[in-house]
Model the fold of this input.
Amino acid sequence: MHFSSVSPKLLLQLCISTIHSIFASVFSKVRYWTAGGCKGSVSVLPADRDATTPTSVNYHFTRKCNYKCGFCFHTAKTSFVLPLEEAQRGLKLLKESGMEKINFSGGEPFLHEKGEFLGEMVQFCKQDLQLPSVSIVSNGSMIKEKWFQKYGAYLDILAVSCDSFDEATNQLIGRAQGRKSHLENLYKIRNWCQQYKVAFKINSVINTFNIDEDMSEHIMELNPVRWKVFQCLLIDGENAGQDALREAERFVISDQQFQEFLDRHSNVSCLVPESNEKMRNSYLILDEYMRFLDCREGRKDPSKSILDVGVKEAICFSGFDEKMFLKRGGKYVWSKADMKLEW
Done:
């Protein structure tokens, strides 16, 4: 085409059309590149869908731990812990974005400041933020009765990790500290939960060391509100790969082995199974910097901190699968006021 033969009006229309096509192409690529990890929109895109609501959040505020579980997938790669005021600011942002349940984990959450830091956050979430559910996951080794006396009223659920009811097996796994009995602590904490009206829960990671164990009798005696049973999961940079602090390959079991364990315990009504498929993308995990961790690629890729960019933008890079969250039973009766428990 010879532009000298084209009218100025037609030439202008052609230029506008070309520019429009270029912008449409660029916009499409930007949308493809940035929207992959986000259910809704990111800050550079128009909000054509609602952003993910952080209904249930797991805040791993510390990585330090006094146990050395061989399959641990959140290891002590840093010793950083946010100042209390900053942590509370982040928790308030989450509440304003729709959070209903917060779960504090680690590392070992009772290790930092002997549980006082944790207690302050638990009280803040229940008393100030009025969250329906506040829970903790702990190995149980650092919990004292005086903590329950001071903070128990603000806690809905306490989950204690226990992978075996054989002390020697716990030692082999690394869920132990010296000669202290992990099982004695477990039963003692169960009684404190009953006394101070905190719902008691047990978490177990099924691996090569406990795959043949029958835990039914002990679980039914302890009578937790939930028994979460996890299939051992590999996370690159945490418990597998070159930069990992653990070598969890020797703990890994097959899907079939995991199913056989579940079948053996099918009579335990409180059992809640979580295979690798269900677990990998169905948790909203915040690290010690309050960054969401995306585990879709078998590693933990962090977002920017919610303290810097807000919850709506950070959550877009969490890789969170809300459908799988609901499928695995992530939403349940999680406030002790609604559980109708007999204390």
